[in-house]
Amino acid sequence: HGLGLIETRLSHYKEAISYYQKALETIPNYRDSVRELSDAYLKDGQTEPSAKALEEYLAINPDDSEFWLRLGQTYNAGLEFDKARAAFEKSLALADENPKAEQGLIIALI
Predict the structure, then answer these.
(1) Are 30 and 53 in contact (CB under 8 A)?
(2) pLDDT score, position 45
(3) 31-78: per-residue pLDDT in tens?
(4) At 102, is the pLDDT very low, low, confident or very high (cuts 50, 70, 90)?
(5) Model-level pTM greater than 0.85?
(6) Of 9, 44, 64, 89, which residue is most buried, by most CB within 10 angstroms?
(7) Could you give the CA distance from residue 69 to residue 8 in angstroms, rounded to a whole number?
(8) 61 by DSSP, 3-state: which?
(9) CA 22 from centre of chain
């Protein structure tokens, strides 16, 4: 995980992705590694694998409002606005006051 963070800071996203994947092989569904893996995919322009990492995490941890927010943002980045809307609504249902989810929902609805 730590080496992935270093590679991310250097904007070496493909290398970072590899390190995060290795970290998740060791500790499956480790929240920090899933978050960083998803972010590295997104920064590398890969919205589908970014969303997949978040979806897999949320299948096991469905009450994580932050990850529903991240999934909505990822869907918005991939222009999947119907999926984004559903993810933002789930995030808002879990955390009443979530300005980022509210903003993302507005973008998805426009």
Answers:
(1) no
(2) 95
(3) 999 999 999 999 999 999 999 999 999 999 999 999 999 999 999 999
(4) confident
(5) yes
(6) 64
(7) 21
(8) coil
(9) 18
Cα 33 from Cα 109, distance rounded (Å)? 30
User: What pLDDT does 21 receive?
Assistant: 96
Q: Give the number of other Cβ atoms within 10 Å of residue 106's Cβ.
A: 11
Q: Is the dihedral of CA 64, 68, 70, 74 positive or negative?
A: positive
Structure tokens at 21: 């994947």
In this prediction, residue 27 has a pLDDT band, given cuts at 50, 70 and 90, of very high
> Quick count: other Cβ atoms within 10 Å of Cβ 109?
10
**Which H or E run includes 80?**
none
Contacts of 37 (CB under 8 A, 6+ apart): 4, 17, 20, 21, 24, 53
Cβ count near 63 (within 10 Å): 11
Looking at residue 11, what DSSP letter applies?
T
